Amino acid sequence: MNLLSTLSCLPLLIWLSSAGTSATNPLLSTSAKACGLIAQTISTNSAIFLPGSSEYASDVAHFALSAEQNSTCSVEVGTAADLRAIVKILGSTRAPFAVKGGGHNLNPGFSSTSGVQLSMIRFNNIVYHAKSQTVDIGSGLIWDDVYAALDAYNVSVVGGRATGVGVAGLLLGGGYSYKTNQYGLAVDSLTALEVVLPFGEVRTVTERSDPDLFFALRGGGNNFGIVTQFTMRTHAQGTVWGGSITYDGTRGDAVTNALLTYTTNNSDPRTGLQCTYATVSGESIVMVNLFYNGPTPPPGIFDSFLTIPSISTDIGSRSYLSLIQSANTNLTAGVRGLYNTISHTAVTRNLTSAMRNQTNFYSSLLSSSSLLLAGYVVEPFIPSAYLQGKSATAYPPNRLENIHPMNIYYAWTDPAFDDEMLRTSRTSATLLKSVATAEGILGSVLYPNYALVGTSVNDLYGKHTERLRDIKRRFDPLNVMGLTGGFKL
């Protein structure tokens, strides 16, 4: 650190020194010590911020207000070398920390902390390699950035379906996409990852160089290090067709019939669909997002949805980025929220009826608990989607099982009802699980990116759990990554 950098950090170091003298809060003391050491160590490519600054506020902000925590300091990491030094400091001080990419994880403590908040926002490179048809993507980006940059080359990648979703979180959890039917999960397109390992080594991981670590990083969460860059295969991208349709809740039967027709008859890998049974401020609606990877879909695939009278329709040919940004997924940004999930292997009338009943029942039950939205999302995939991956990944453990991840989403405003929302979502998931079990369609594992805090890792990784634990022990024997939140092995 040069003299100018040292002088600029003096107010920070004085504050941290004062905070670190507290004998009544050892957590604050440990975190303050780590922040002070980081401030003295990082280069000018990185920066550290304290509460009260606009940068700090941005670094700790999340899509869901309930996922935010006030950290002791925030660090915008600018280089892998700085991150390596930071990881060593965190390991030696045992300070709790969190790593934030896009900030779209709804579980408190998964990308937020009361300790040291690491923001990856400065890892924002996007480099397209035409010869290899791959792209290097910084881990601090959101998918909107990636799609926009690649549009100039008429290519794209298998990535997020909603605006504002971070690259890193989606990929580390497996990653479903509108293109999953055609190309597999997002992790199936990964060819390399640059990662800072828990003992401080910067390593480029490929299937050839580190087959076990390559397996673990693709869906195994944040247990094995901090990824700074992802390299993905690209695919030719032209105009797509799709968008969203919103129906009044009284059209629920008709939409369900259309959904069952689609899931029974569709085998076109260029398709994608999400169907949400929801209540918004007590009003029942059904929302459908349709996708076809081409200018227009063949006749018959989506016709039964298009003929149902709707409240609003935004469907047409457009760019892929326009499609992603057309959905109203940010309507509940900045309020409290949670995801929960079950998985199922088929879409049935009984299961969809149970979802609709849950939506209406819990909307009424929670009407005095500041509930804004209760949504239950069906996401069907064709069986061949899981066969697109050419090698095993941490998630999913069984490529022969056609898992449909159901997303249960609650949004509310009053923090006094946080625990009630958690309890209710667990009760609801248990009831839906019993319906799927009776139907013989219960999936064997849960999608990590939808799973609620407290979910067992065995429920996420099944037969892969022990292999992942073994890899974790080899690459993180001191459990440095155990100092951050997430689904821990």
TrEMBL record:
Single GO MF annotation: oxidoreductase activity
Signal peptide feature range: 1-19
PROSITE patterns documented for this protein: FAD_PCMH
Domain FAD-binding PCMH-type span(s) in chain numbering: 67-237
InterPro entries found in the cross-reference section: FAD-bd_PCMH, FAD-bd_PCMH-like_sf, FAD-bd_PCMH_sub1, FAD-bd_PCMH_sub2, FAD-linked_Oxidoreductase, Oxid_FAD_bind_N
Gene3D superfamilies: 3.30.465.10, 3.40.462.20, Uridine Diphospho-n-acetylenolpyruvylglucosamine Reductase, domain 2
Keywords: FAD, Flavoprotein, Oxidoreductase, Signal
Keyword tRNA processing: no
KW Mitochondrion (keyword) present: no
Similarity comment text for this entry: Belongs to the oxygen-dependent FAD-linked oxidoreductase family.
Protein name: FAD-binding domain-containing protein
Taxonomic lineage: Eukaryota, Fungi, Dikarya, Basidiomycota, Agaricomycotina
